[in-house]
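Q: I'm teaching a short session on how sequence maps to structure, and I want students to see two examples side by side rather than one. Could you give me a first protein with its sequence written out and its structure tokens following it? Keep the formatting plain so it prints cleanly on a handout.
A: Of course. Example one:
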Amino acid sequence: MPRLGLLVAAAVVALDQLSKHALLQHFNETGCVGHHERVTAFFDLVLTCNKGVSFGMLNRTEVPWPVFALGAAGIVLLLILWLSRVKSRLLGAAIGLIIGGAIGNVIDRLNHGAVIDFLYFHAGAWYWPAFNLADSAICLGVAAMLLDGVLLRRSAPQAKGKEVFRHDRS
């Protein structure tokens, strides 16, 4: 399923970068400048840049952005190696989602020194950290990977529902 995974990854990268380009156009910006626009009672469109890892973790550290970009690139290479051995369509698509999301965020780090996040959901006093389509693809990929690994994997084939026992009678 390497081909399926690579097609999914390419689609994720394209959609992620198109959405971020549209956001920058919407706010008439070329890079990381903070903006906030209320869309509904539970959703805001924001322009924020994450210099850390997922959901802003390590956002205030002094780790230079190339460290995160190189780490993500290494993970992508490992995932591509794994993808080359995958037989399951679901697992291939899941790995493709993760690869595409990681590449989309690496492109941001190379172009802006940080990842552009813009989807901001909230309910009452509860606020979810801003995220983007690449982040969503990574989360969906991990969920599909878990689904494939936990629920869809079959145990070793048995003899048509009959248990085979060997009895040695001496």
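Q: Perfect. Now a second example for contrast.
A: Example two:
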Amino acid sequence: MNNSRRVLLIGGIALTLLGMAHGLWYAVFAEHQALQGMGSSLSAAFSAAALRNTAEQQHTMDQYRQTKFVYDREVDAHGHWIGLGLLLMVLSISVNRVSFSNQLRLLLAWGLSAGCLLFPLGVLLQTANHGAMPQAIAVAGSGLIIVALTGITIGLARPQSN
């Protein structure tokens, strides 16, 4: 097994396990509280609206938005780590057909693996910090994924040299 295949396969397995572990942790320790928080916030918002208490309605809708924001990012990180891990494993099968040097294939494999880790991590970090840094991490990760997948696609489209 060559190094680029090893990087993609081990990285894919690691990301898939990370995504499953995060999903299990979230389902056991946090998801039910988040869903209960969203439901109670909406219920309180509707009650406040019925009583024409716009300040309370706005406050409870803000609580709902914040809880939903965190919930969406937790679920997205879990799903993206698993999906991107599976993509890495599938690409490990065909990486030898990429018509580039071993060094370039290895660089593309490392770039893709790093991007697949960083993109969901940046999304997940947005739950703790709404600043620019988590967004920059997510954008950098997605950029690495796009560049590496473009390189792999070009390498697969090129004719194989003997």
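Q: What should students look for in example two?
A: Point them to this: Helices lie at 3-29, 31-50, 54-94, 102-125, 132-157. Also worth mentioning: Residues 54-94 form the longest helix (41 residues).
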